[in-house]
Design goal:
The protein has helices spanning about 40-50, 60-75, 80-85, 115-120, 165-175, 175-180, 195-200, 235, 265-270, 285-300, 305-320, 355-370, 380-385, 385-415, 415-440, 445-475; strands spanning about 5-15, 20-25, 30-35, 95-100, 125-135, 150-155, 185, 190, 210-215, 220-225, 225-230, 250-255, 275-280, 330-335. It has about 475 residues and is of the alpha/beta class. The strands form 2 sheets. Strands 6, 7, 8, 9, 10, 11, 12, 13 and 14 form a 9-stranded mixed β-sheet that branches. Strand 1 and strand 2 (about 20-25) form a beta hairpin. Helix 12 (about 355-370) packs antiparallel against helix 16 (about 445-475). The radius of gyration is 28 Å and the shape is elongated.
Length: about 475
């Protein structure tokens, strides 16, 4: 996906103490429709029951989704929306629908299901719905600091079933690895955190904060040993420092989009505090569904895409996955005011941050493979035949390997697995290079010297091939 096209916007406001909604297309007519405040509460419960469903139950999910989508369509002027989409020049393949919610009580409605109702009317075009809130505080923007920083944090009390953030964090570490290589990203630590540690950590300015935790309507549940510490979402919102005007907050927290009569949801509270892009969860989501979603999200962000594009890519990936994971596609909810690019491309950065190192490995592996020793070599023959290896190849390969080690050092230091693999393979190749250079200048040429040189040569080639495989595997995440 190359990026979002024009955005169609709806505005929704409550009337008559929550029993009536006025919905209007931007610049169009307003439609007032009745709505019982609890009419959609069962949708959240239905989603929670999808966890252990089998493929044979997929038709039940599709039928229920269509029914709830029809209920949402009944309170929305879809004819006006379709007319607005038809007027877009040219008609986009992906339609982005922004729903502006002026009242917190409207958060519990599954607005994302409007995608299904609209797609039925738009001849196969895909639709992605995101939300925005009115009255959000404006933060003063500044030029983004590069390299960008991210924070990955997980918390859960011992008295509640533990969260498992490892797959989500692995998706970030793998898909953003090339940004570290090209110095666009400074990796953040993946850490277990209680409320106090997270608050202190957020005094630093981050481009992206990913928090995995348990949640309840209006609250985030932090772990403090065995105890559960319930913190209002509004309090969490106050932890974002004033410099975080372009920060993306990813809340992998169940119910983080649902508030109470007294407390806003965590996602809305953070959005109202001025954070321009906040992802929350409408209800429960399985670990497998979350893994699918975040893998697609981070792949897109790793291509320097904006947050709306990344969100749309992730939603479509989840919708196209197998059941029951696809049943959770409406759970991740995005509040977006300004369409930020979490990891903007730095000027002069090549499209493939690994190409420099891969080309170096291929070139020098070929050179080393050609230097095949013979027992007939005399001292002067050794000197002539290995001169290129001992001089130019040694200099360039050593410099390239050391540069690669330096490039991945920040990520290796905070234990990103891919970086440690690259670091280990590069250091092994450096050691192998030193051994080969030593063997290339034998004090007594002959069968023993030939055997040692050939053994060290093959070992170095194995190290270079292993490093090549590691970088090639990572390369698929690059733009």
């Amino acid at each position: 996906m190359t990026g979002p096209g024009p955005i169609v916007g709806l505005r929704a406001a409550l009337r008559d103490h929550g029993r009536s909604i006025a919905v209007s297309l931007e610049g169009g007519r307003a439609v007032e429709t009745s709505h019982e405040s609890g009419a959609f509460d069962t949708w959240c419960s239905f989603l929670s029951n999808q966890r252990d469903r089998t493929e044979s139950k997929r038709s039940d999910f599709v039928e229920r989704s269509r029914k709830e989508a029809a209920n949402m369509a009944a309170i929305t002027p879809l004819d006006d929306v379709c007319a607005g989409i038809a007027s877009l020049p040219p008609a986009p393949a992906l339609v982005l629908l922004r729903v502006e919610l002026s009242d917190r009580a409207l958060d519990k409605l599954p607005w994302e299901l409007l995608s299904l109702a609209l797609e039925d009317r738009l001849a196969g075009r895909r639709v992605c719905v995101f939300r925005t809130v009115t009255g959000m505080r404006r933060r003063e923007k500044a030029a983004p600091a590069l390299p960008a920083r991210i924070l990955l944090a997980e918390t859960s009390p011992m008295t509640i079933q533990s969260t498992n953030a490892a797959p989500e964090f692995a998706a970030a570490q793998q898909n953003l690895g090339h940004l570290v290589i090209s110095e666009q990203l400074q990796p953040g630590d993946a850490r277990a955190s209680d409320a106090f540690r997270l608050r202190d950590a957020m005094s630093t300015t981050y481009r992206l904060i990913h928090l995995t935790a348990h949640g309840e309507p209006g609250q985030v549940i932090f772990g403090e040993g065995r105890e559960a510490q319930r913190v209002p979402g509004k309090t969490v919102a106050e932890w974002f420092n004033e410099q975080q005007a372009d920060t993306v907050a990813l809340l992998s927290i169940c119910m983080s989009v649902i508030g109470t009569a007294d407390q806003p949801s965590a996602a809305r509270a953070i959005a109202e505090a001025g954070i321009p892009a906040v992802l929350g969860m409408y209800g429960d989501i399985t670990q497998q569904a979350a893994e699918t979603f975040f893998d697609a999200l981070y792949k897109s962000l790793g291509r320097n895409e904006d947050m709306l594009t990344a969100y749309a890519d992730a939603i479509l990936a989840l919708r196209e996955s197998s059941y029951p994971n696809c049943g959770f596609w409406s759970v991740p909810v995005l509040y977006s005011k300004d369409n930020v690019i979490p990891f903007p491309r730095r000027p002069g950065i090549p499209d493939d941050a690994y190409s420099e190192y891969i080309e170096l490995l291929v070139e020098h592996a070929a050179e080393i493979a050609e230097v095949a020793p013979k027992e007939s070599w005399k001292q002067v023959t050794w000197t002539v035949e290995t001169m290129g290896l001992r001089m130019e190849t040694r200099r360039r390969l050593r410099a390239g390997l050391q540069k690669l080690i330096t490039a991945v050092e920040p990520a290796a230091r905070v234990r990103w697995r891919w970086a440690r693999d690259v670091d280990r393979a590069a250091r092994s190749a450096l050691t192998g290079l030193d051994l080969l250079i030593e063997a290339a200048e034998p004090t007594a040429p002959g069968a023993q010297a030939v055997a040692r040189f050939d053994e060290d040569r093959k070992a170095l080639l194995d190290d270079l091939r292993n490093l090549h495989r590691t970088l090639s595997a990572l390369r698929r995440f690059a733009p």
